[in-house]
Bifunctional transcriptional activator/DNA repair enzyme AdaA
Amino acid sequence: MTEDEMWKAVSENDDAYDGIFFYAVKSTGIYCRPSCKSKLPKRDNVGFFDTSIEAQVAGFRPCKRCRSDLCDYQPIKEIAQEVKTLIDEMWNEKHILDKQLKNIGISNRRIVDIFKEEYGITLTEYIANLRLEEVKFLLKTTDDAIIDIAYSIGFGGISSFYSFFKKRVGISPWYIEG
């Protein structure tokens, strides 16, 4: 990207370039996002940087208006990742998982919405996929009876396990075993 293209983005406050580059104003010592709505500086006073860290190292401070220092701050993405990590670690311990999810400090409904928005799948589906992968792994790598595998994965009975497995895989778990 040329400096002329970057200047055009800055002069048009084009948010499509936010995070792609930053501009700094030499006369004020401040760096901004291209979309910053502050007064357009003189072109001669502007320098361009690929990252906010480069601008800071060069001695510029972040703009208080556009919060150029928070360009990478994505709290929703962080919440989704925290939820995913908890599920990956505790999917088979429902009571502990539920308690940990409550500790995040937002409602269950909002957690579900955030997770689905970020990963394109509901919490229930994600957990079901983890369960299915564990079932397949255990069926192929252990000599455990199917009923023991079903209980170890958290199914209350063999019929619910068979129903779950057949719905997701299309065949009986007997065909996977061994």
